[in-house]
Structure formats: structure tokens, C-alpha cells
Amino acid sequence: MTESNHSTSSASLAMLGLQFQHWQIWPVVSHHVKIKQKIRMHTPLEKLQDCFVNILAGGHGLVEINTRLRADPGLQRAFGRATCAEQSTISDTLNACTPENVQQMQQALAQLIRQHSQTFRHAYSKQWQLFDIDMTGLCAGRLGEGVTKGYFAHRKNARGRQLGRVIGTHYDEVITERLFPGKRQLEKSLLELVDATSATLELDENKRKNTLLRIDGGGGSEANINALLARQYQVLVKVHNWQRARKLAETVQEWWCDPKVPEREVGWVRQPYDYVRATQQLAIRKRKNKDEWSYAVIVSSVSNRILQQLNGQRVSKKLAERERAWLILHAYDLRGGGAETQNKSDKQGLGLAKRNKHKFAAQEMLVLLAQLAHNLVIWTRNALARATPGLAKYGIHRMVRDVLRIPGQIRFDAVGKVQITLSENHPLAQKVLNGFRAWLPRDDLSLNLGKI
């Protein structure tokens, strides 16, 4: 090894790069993914790694590889790369990816989740598991494969693709991601996402009985609800059929005003629809105008104890009917802090919706690289928070923008030792340094503060 000194705008990310090598993350990817492409200076997997590091460094477009990563040799070396490929050749590698390569990458990510995620190590016998499942739109140019008109929030007549996601909500980890054409909605994608998650986490029947799936109304068809209940999952899902919701709401005998949203009312469905397992069904109504109401129905198989825990309340055996109704309603509302929060955070912090490729398989590979980046950042945040608890509240956006963008210097000596100095002027430098020192106590690594 040669001795070298480098100034970098991402010295804290370089610390993560050293742990990335120690965890042997990229060798797992390289073992599974085999991209057929002619090799000149860099192998296809090396170029894929450069793309991945650019995402971690906050690059929202492939073109930023040249200015954000290629111009930072210290950061390259921290992630085990001697040099960085040019962005156009990385784009060519993504275009060379096939559906088979995408499946290989999915297998690699599943193995990494089984090795490193807290969701996989969850103690089902002591606590219930929670997954939020949703679709989010990725707008794209009309000529891309799989790009069609569809539902894209606040974007009328937009075109793009749909991304299905399963979030391990207790731990903020992305367990499953699948890309679909723009017209595809959650109703037709839900079971594929759930079954892929079950395979990744090796969920047997006992684990499924202690797993709660919280699902948007787009996935609440009769067939989906029955299939999930038959698999022994617990569900908290809004009925997809609005006509059925209106008919069920007609059987409500008493409506109660929501204490959190006064213009909304809830009541118990007295003649519930007959699913394959017993459920509680709660009707919701909200006034559209002076003379009309809009209706929805939430289907729940969840016990009062779990609902109270979800809402952060002490477990009480005696609950009035309206209190139980509010528990279900507010537990469902917490979806906004699960899938929806992670979708927004990844679009802001990881540029999830910014990188668009014409080929469908190329776009799928970019999505999976972003999934790996998301989980690696979450694992890092959780590790740092053990020594610096204040970081536990940081989302992906703040981690990438603030925590992993502290400038500094990196020194590699000839015998393999690394010294990283963070700028003492950065407001988070001391907290981040304390976290990394507690997380990475290694004889070959020295971490300091200094004037940069």
C-alpha cells in the first residue's frame, strides 16, 4: 500500500466506507450479480459500486459521479476503490443490466438483510412485528420502458413507473422493493411484495401470526384481505371498494367525532363483511360538502393490546367502544410516519426519483442500489445513536446531507493504517466522532477533530 493524504468534503462518509469494507458488503453483491459486459479499465461490478457510493454521497444524478466522487480519491479509497469510472461508462453498465441481473441483485440484498438487519433479528415471541406497505410514483420521460400514465401524487396527467415498498417500521429498514409500470397499483402488487418479504425474512406461521401489515386502501381488495388473513397475518387495511364502504357504513348505529380531526367521525360497522377470519370493521365519514359525506372502512384483526402499544398508550383491559374505535383510526393514521415518511426521505436524501433510465432493468438496478444505500445509512445511524442518542431521530435526508457530509482529511499510511480528521468547525463533528469512535474501535484507525 502507498501513503497518501487527501482533503475531502465527506470525511464522515469515508468512516462509513471503512465499515462498508469490514462488513464485506460488496463481495456479497459481486458473488450474486454477474453482468455481461466487455471489461476495459473497470469491471461492471466496480462501476456499479461507484454508482452506489455516489448515491451515498448525495449525488442525485449519474453526472454527479464525475464531480462528487471521481474528484475525491480519498473517498474512493475508503470504499476500497483505487480509482473511479467515468459517469458515461457507469451509465453503459446500467444499460447492460438484464432482468436476470435484477433478480441476482434482489438475492444479494436479501442475504445482506439476513446478515445485518434488525428486522430479521426481531424477537417475535416478545413483540409484534410491523410492516408498512405502499406504492410511490416515480415520474419519468414518456419514452422509457414501463412508463405510462398513472396515479402520481399532485402531478395531474404525469407519466412514470410505480415503486412498491415494504418498510420494517420498527427499524426504518426497507425490506422489499419492486418496480412496476405506471398503471400498476397496489391491488395487483400487494401479494407479490408480501411474499417476497416473507421469503427474505424467512417468516414461518408463528412469525406471521405476530406480524401486522398496515396497508393503504389501494391494497384492500377482498381477495387481498382474505389471502393475508389466510396466511395468518394481522392486518390493518382500508377497504378498496368505495361502494362496499358506503354500504357497510349504513349499518353504523352511532358516530363519534374524532378528537384529533374534529371534521371526521367514526362508528362501528354492525353488519361486517364476512372475511375468512373474524375482523373488526370501522367506518369513517368526512363531510365533502353541506349535504354529502365521503365514507371509508378500516378492516382490523389486531388486538386492543397491540393497538394501544401502536398508539403509545398504557395497556388497559377496559375500553369503551368509542375508545377502541379511535385506537384503530389513529393506529392506521400512523402510516404517515412509516412508508410515507420513508418514501419522502429517500426521494429527498437519496434522489430516488431523480435518476431515470430508459431501460426498465436499468431503472430497477438503480432502485435496488438506493435500497441498499437506505439500509446502510439506517444501520449506521442506529450504530452511532448508541453513543450519541440525539442522532436516533435523524432520517435519511439529514443523515446524507449533514452527518455523512462533514469535511476533513484522510491519511493512508504505507502499512495500512488510516487517520481521519473531521473539521472541528462543523456543528455535528464532535457528536459524529463520538459515535464512530464507539462503533469502530480499531487499532488501524485513528479518528480526530482538527482545523481543516
Question: Can you give a write-up of this model?
Answer:
The chain is an alpha+beta fold and 452 residues long. It folds into 2 domains: 12-101 and 357-402, no CATH class; 128-340, Transposase Inhibitor Protein From Tn5, Chain A, domain 1. Helix content is 41%, strand content 19%. The chain has helices at residues 11-22, 25-32, 44-56, 64-69, 73-78, 87-95, 99-116, 186-201, 205-209, 222-230, 242-249, 304-310, 321-333, 339-349, 360-385, 396-403, 429-439; strands at 4-8, 129-139, 148-149, 159-168, 173-181, 211-215, 234-238, 256-257, 264-268, 280-287, 293-300, 408-412, 418-423, 445-450. Strands 2, 3, 4, 5, 6, 7, 8, 9, 10 and 11 form a 10-stranded mixed β-sheet that branches. A 4-stranded mixed β-sheet has the order 1-12-13-14. A hairpin with a 5-residue loop joins strand 12 (408-412) and strand 13. Helix 3 (44-56) packs across helix 6, helix 3 crosses helix 15 (360-385) and helix 7 packs parallel to helix 15 (360-385). The radius of gyration is 24 Å and the shape is globular. The mean pLDDT is 93.
CATH H-level superfamily title of the largest domain: Transposase Inhibitor Protein From Tn5, Chain A, domain 1
Number of domains: 2
Number of β-strand runs? 14
- Strand residue content: 15-25%
Calculate the mean pLDDT score and round it: 93
The count of helical stretches stands at 17
CATH architecture of the largest domain, please?
Alpha-Beta Complex
Poorly predicted regions are: none
Summarize the biggest pleated sheet.
10 strands, mixed
What is the CATH fold-level name of the largest domain? Answer: Transposase Inhibitor Protein From Tn5, Chain A, domain 1
How much helicity do the residues have?
Answer: 40-55%
